[in-house]
Specification:
Number of strands of chain A: 7
Number of helices of chain A: 9
Number of domains of chain A: 2
Strand order of the largest sheet of chain A: 2-1-3-4-5-6-7
Order of helices and strands of chain A: EHEEHEEEHEHHHHHH
Shape of chain A: elongated
Strand content of chain A: 5-15%
CATH class of the largest domain in chain A: Alpha Beta
CATH topology of the largest domain in chain A: Rossmann fold
CATH architecture of the largest domain in chain A: 3-Layer(aba) Sandwich
Oligomer: homodimer
CATH superfamily of the largest domain in chain A: NAD(P)-binding Rossmann-like Domain
Helix content of chain A: 40-55%
Chain lengths: 227, 227
């Protein structure tokens, strides 16, 4: 397959490396020809620049990798979005990474699926509308959980306690939730209805915001499990 | 070293297996002799039964493994608490697991450290008072994050979207937070001050509780990063 990638950033580089062994590649940075001869052009630039680049390039089939950007309004276009947070140095385990695929013409879907297969990743057919809904869920499981780590770390620092003793259960959390389902995996004082421990913890938490969140989340868990 | 374990549950079994190769072991379930000849007796029973078993057994040095139970009021006693959630089938990676150690006599600490070393785990000196503070932080990084997974899964189910596309970033979350520190690792619309996306997400979230949490956590993140 003839593949062109526009974008030499983090994701662009990872995609280029992954497709290099099996595809006839073209790879462009800020400078790219306006007309590109390829089966697919993958635009992997910043969110803000995405639609501009797509409108500048002329090619049979142009897709982008920006999760927060809706599919372009073109005859043959699509979205090729890996739902993952890429870092430059880390080795990417492609087999674990889901690609959310969308295209304006159903006939182009096999191209997206084939590329996903060549990378060794997993393909999911997701419309732009579904993608924004998944994005809200991604914020919950990623951004909000990370914020709880921040609050917990600050709590530890306040009492001069080593945050690293929590690393093991932090790492274990997603694995357990995925293996058992999060509802079954739920544990803790709120799940048990252990109000004494909750009260005790609230007395120890100094930061008012953290305290409010502790209280709301505990109430929420209790309600959900009808305690 | 002569080690006795009381308790044939999940943790008791894992500890027994780990110490078996290097220690002179005794292992008891519900029936145990009132007098035990060992360098250390590890009581690994349910939280509720812990203090009762400790008061029933006569041995030079008796410790327990219950994170939520304060150290017993005895002359030579202690706490030997692995901060981790053990499951029967899973293979335990001891080297990642922190043991929170405490004892009434400073002279007994080397025994607890030696056992931790024999298991291949990491030792931390933590008093009962510090332990309850760490417990509050553990609730945040483990129980509350798991609850967010539950809410995100329900959100996906409501829209008939595959929750599994989120598995990869769920698994990545703790690793990134540990590698970079959670404050640096924070991303997402609230971190960027992207109010349009937040508003959009809030419109899509059906469950009122999830909506309230989304709002509070977003506000909280924005405030923390002075947006």
């Amino acid at each position: 397959m003839k593949v062109a990638i526009i974008g030499k950033g983090n994701l662009g580089s990872h995609l280029h490396n992954a497709l290099q062994p099996t595809c006839d590649m073209q790879w462009y940075g800020r400078e790219f020809p306006t007309t590109i001869d390829a089966d697919i052009v993958i635009v992997s630039v910043s969110d803000d620049a995405t639609l501009k680049v797509i409108s500048d390039v002329h090619a049979p089939f142009v897709v982008h990798t920006a999760g927060a950007v809706a599919m372009a309004n073109l005859e043959r276009t699509g979205v090729f979005y890996p739902l993952f947070s890429f870092t430059k140095e880390a080795v990417v385990q492609w087999k674990d990474i889901p690609f959310l695929l969308e295209c304006s013409r159903e006939e182009d879907m096999p191209v997206l699926e084939e590329i996903t297969r060549l990378i060794g990743a997993r393909a999911f057919h997701i419309t732009s509308e579904q993608r924004t809904k998944l994005h809200a869920a991604a914020v919950m499981v990623n951004n909000f959980t990370n914020h709880l780590y921040t609050l917990a770390k600050e709590h530890c620092q306040h009492y001069d306690l080593p945050f690293e003793v929590l690393h093991a259960i932090m790492r274990q959390g997603p694995d357990k939730a995925i293996a058992l389902g999060p509802k079954t995996a739920q544990t803790g004082p709120a799940r048990r209805g252990d109000d004494r421990t909750i009260k005790h913890h609230l007395e120890q938490i100094q930061d008012p915001t953290t305290k409010a969140l502790y209280e709301l989340l505990s109430e929420n868990i209790k309600k959900r499990y009808e305690l």
